Amino acid sequence: MDLTTALSVINSLSIDERIRVVEAVWDGIAADQPVPTITDAQKAELDRRLALHRAAPNDVIPWEVVKQQALERARKQ
After folding, report:
1. Domain range for residue 28?
2. Contact criterion met (CB below 8 Å) for 22 and 30
């Protein structure tokens, strides 16, 4: 089956069925990818950030504040 025919068949499906097709295709793509590796420097940085978080777990900025600040910066550009 060529791509045009396949897309025609897919587009004739219900939305729920098309979503399942997309999920199946995406899962297939993900399964074919090798597991990414991180460098020693990246691991060290992750370990550093995790240690900082564990030392002060309440020292965070709520998502709503981060989002608002980002939107304000974007509007200024």
Report:
1. 3-32
2. no
